[in-house]
Amino acid sequence: MMRIKGIVFLVIITALGFLISWISVDPMLESEIEYQASIANGALVEIDGFDVDLIDLKIRWDRLQVANPENTMTNSFETGEMELDFLFWPTWWERVIIEDVILKEFRMDTERETDGYFEIPEEVKNEEQSFIAKVVVDVTSEISRNAQMEFTDIKTNINVDSLMSKLNLQAPDKIDSLRNGLAQNYQKWDSTLSNTKINKEIADIEKTINAINVKEIKDPKKAIEAIKNVQKLVRQADSLKTRAQNLKKDFQDDFGSSKFSAGRVDNWIQADFQRAMNMAKLPTIDPGNIAQSIFGTNLLADYSGYLEYVAIARKYGSRLVGEDKEKIERYEGKDYKFSDKYDWPKLWIQNIDLSGETKTAIQLAGKITNISSDQKKTKEPIIFNLGGSDDSNRSMTLTGEFNYLGDDPRETINFTYDGFGLKGSKISPSELLPYPLKTGTGEVSASVSIIDKRFDSEIGYKAKGIAFDFGQNPSKNRVQQLIRDAVSSTDQINVTALVDNLNGPLNVKVRSNLDDLFVNALRNTVSKEVDQARQKIESRVRSEIGNRKEQLLAFKNEKEAEIRKEYERLENRVNEEIKKVEEKKKELEKKKKELEDSLKNAVKDRIGIDW
Amino acid sequence: MFLILKYIAKLLKALSSEASPNQLAGGFILGMIIGLTPVASVHNLIILIIVIILKVNIGMVILAFLVFSGVAYLADPIFHSFGIWMLENESMQNTWTNMYNNELWAITKFNNTVVLGSFVTAVLLCAPMFPLTKIGVKQYRAHIHERVMKTKFVKALKGTKFYSIYQTVVRVRG
To answer: Among A175, A610, B33, B75, which one is least packed by beta carbons within 10 Å?
Structure first.
């Protein structure tokens, strides 16, 4: 009854199946995970010693390296040996559910032996820039704007001629081009109004009206016929009026946009002036500009770097939501669900226990929970809580939540790094504060809250117990010396950067407790020089542009008046013609009545009956 | 080609007198289940294992599979409706829910309308098809076999090179 050969065949096939999966699963899975993670990271992600144990349901690796996209010769972080358990049944539904992961030897900013560059596929490169990525670009451009400001090198004797020759003013050309455009537009209207068929039709109506001689009409029938003709003329004249009104509307619309164009002239002049100011490297001396110039570069550069990770989290958090759209095809049948037991996301790492150390040797430990490809299925947001300290009282905490459960994605992140020594370091890369510190400790804190496209964040920096090492000799640079005098009296620096878009465009503000000290020092000295140089440049820019704006406005007003006059002449002619036609109609109706009355009287006289 | 010819020849041989009617009928109903239900199903893997282990006639399995695959192509909408009726049946809801929550049952994809409809239909058809096939085999041996062997198709089959090689192999193997 049983086939012995069949049983042997089955045993061999089963053994072969196990062998093949044993050999091929590890490299296949490893390469797929590395590829997808590298795309997400923007640089190479490498796993060494990857092993999937299908019997014990475990995944292990010896080392994980995540290259830094900004510097591919270093790793953003790496981990040592790791082991995780995954659930068996979800794999039948092509789902990977991992309950616990223990990540040891987590280290940040480590050196790589090989370049971690990764060529991102074209289709991923061409994806539309995400909202947070745009914020990163805006913050980066703010940083480069700060870097251009120079407070220490203010020139009092500016060579305006040389500056203007380099500047290449743009406003005059733009004004001339606008004038040409307006001239063409006026010419078009001139020709439209003089060549319009309305004029010819008015003349035709007039001719027809004049040809009707009421006195010569002796017969009521002829009078009725003439009235009918005049009624046609009334309709024609009404249509002319409508056409003339439409013409007026088009004309006004056209002039509305011309008016708008003329309003841009001031902006062009202002832009030229601003470029001249930038070229002359004349800063605006106010607290915001100074704080941004001194502290903004460092704070915002770090900030935009970390924001990129939020952009990645949101991109992958929201991209995978709704991944399992139910597919119902005829004759493939329909799957019924009797419970939500198998409603798992494609990937769900329920808990990661992480431990390791930072580059500055702070022992970090903490948890990351519920990393999933679809939070709507897990009903849990990603929550992370990491922290640690070292023997010298330096401490670091990082907490946050990436919540994609609602309609609007929400991210909140809080970070603090406290107690790090500042001895020997410079507080700012700015030329305003080139002095290293003799003593002091620092504290950095950042809080970021993003709800869909509303963005609110604050970065704080505190340097406590500081003393600058000014060296032996006073600074040769006057402004530096002023700043030096101002900061020598303080032992603490507090800086706060606010980055938000709560009122529309991205707003970056940097404030510090030194702002007033700096502003006062600068205002008392260089402020006057800056103002003088500014006036020089402004008057030169205005003289170069000359009275182009006034000429343009005068030309515009003159031409508009001409065209308006021409239109009014046309409108009057149409109205006059309507009036004439109406009068002719009345005359004809009167004549018709007279003729009818006389006819009636004649009939009465003949038959001798008065009715 | 050789494999198909081999099984056609085996089937003809089995039909003539070699195999018992039970082996042929068993092969027929197992092939019918595979043919009527979606091929890539867990239950078909189990049936395939049964086919390999039990001494059912593999030629008959293939024949039934081919015939009933065609039938299933036309009957899928009916299986779908039958599946809906069963899965939506009020009195069965507890059973389905319990089965659905058990992973072993869940991987059989019984919650798919076509899978359930076609499988239940196939199982129900087994009851009449098994004795009918046995009767058919006996009738074939008594009345039809001689005539089949004289048909041009079988003569042509016997005339092919493959068939003579197959016969030689069978003789050598004993």
So the answer is: A610
From residue A73, how far is each of A63, A224, A359, B151 by CA, in Å? 17, 101, 15, 78
Asked whether the beta carbons of A488 and A470 are under 8 A apart, the reply is yes
How many CA atoms, within 13 angstroms, populate the side-chain half-sphere of residue A417? Answer: 15
Instruction: Spell out where A452-542 has E strands.
Output: 454-468, 492-500, 507-512
Q: Does A339 sit within 8 Å of B54, measured CB to CB? A: no
Instruction: Output the DSSP codes for chain B.
Output: -HHHHHHHHHHHHIIIIIS-HHHHHHHHHHHHHHHHS-SSSHHHHHHHHHHHHBT--HHHHHHHHHHHHHHHHHHHHHHHHHHHHHHT-GGGHHHHHHHHHSHHHHTTTTTBHHHHHHHHHHHHHHHHHHHHHHHHHHHIIIIIHHHHHTSHHHHHHHHSHHHHHHHHHHHHH-
Does B103 contact chain A (CB < 8 Å)?
Answer: yes
pLDDT in tens, A516-540: 777 777 776 666 777 777 787 888 8
Interface ipTM: 0.78
Separation in Å, CA of A55 to nearest CA in chain B: 18
Question: Which neighbouring-strand residues pair with A78?
Answer: A65, A107
Q: What amino acid is encoded at A208 in this protein?
A: T
pLDDT of A510 > 60? The answer is yes
CA atoms within 13 A on the CB side of A436: 6
Query: What is the C-alpha to C-alpha distance for residues B114 and B107, in angstroms, rounded to an integer?
Result: 15
Q: What is the largest CA-CA distance in chain A?
A: 138
Give bridge partners of residue A315 from the DSSP assignment.
Answer: none
* Closest to B88 (Cα-Cα) out of A404, A336, A244, A265: A336
Q: Which residue is associated with the tokens 């640089």? A: A43
Give the pLDDT confidence score for residue A143 in this predicted structure. Answer: 60
Answer whether B93's CB lies under 8 Å from B64's CB: no
Range of lowest pLDDT (A369-373, A461-465, A506-510, B46-50): A506-510
Question: Which residues in chain A are contacts of B54 at CB distance < 8 A?
Answer: 1-3, 6
Q: How many CB atoms lie within 10 A of CB A524?
A: 10
CB contact under 8 A, A331 and B76: yes
Query: Contact, A77 vs A120, CB < 8 A?
Result: no
Instruction: Note whether A154 and A529 are within 8 A (CB).
Output: yes
The angle at the Cα of A148, spanning A145 to A152, to the nearest 5 degrees, equals 135
Strands A51-53 and A58-61, by their bridges, are: antiparallel
Q: What is the pLDDT of residue A305?
A: 67
- Which 32-61 residues of chain B touch chain A by CB within 8 A? 38, 49, 52-55
- The model's confidence at residue A321, banded by pLDDT at 50, 70 and 90, is very low
CA atoms within 13 A on the CB side of B16: 9
Q: Which residue ranges make up each domain of chain B?
A: 2-173
A608 backbone dihedrals φ, ψ, rounded to 5°? 75, 20
